[in-house]
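sanity check this chain:
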Amino acid sequence: MNLSSIRIITADIKRLVQFYESITGVPFKWYTDDFAELRMPLGTLAIGSTRTLALFGGNEVATASSNRSVIIEFGVEDVDDKYRQLASLLGEQVVQPPTTMPWGNRSLLFRDPDGNLVNFFTPLTQEAKKRNETTM
């Protein structure tokens, strides 16, 4: 079994897709007006509008902009450089500027326009680099 994708349900799909395209520099592929994907070598970030919930059983299945337990993580070459590039875009959405974590990653934590936590990280220690060989 393989993890295929993470999907975010949003009330404003165009805004959220544009945000993720801006922070990653990678374009999404739109399949319909209500569904788009950012495909990367090790996984996919899918974004669906709230209208797609009807296909899964109705609006009560998920609630847009209400996540408080998941962090969407991207490995980057230099998290400090990414922070400098994105600081004006992220503004007050930065939760924690680049900080070295006890497990060997340097991490930038911020929120997307729907409030989802996003972490850009760079492994610093040899152990962290080895652990992240397949994610970078």
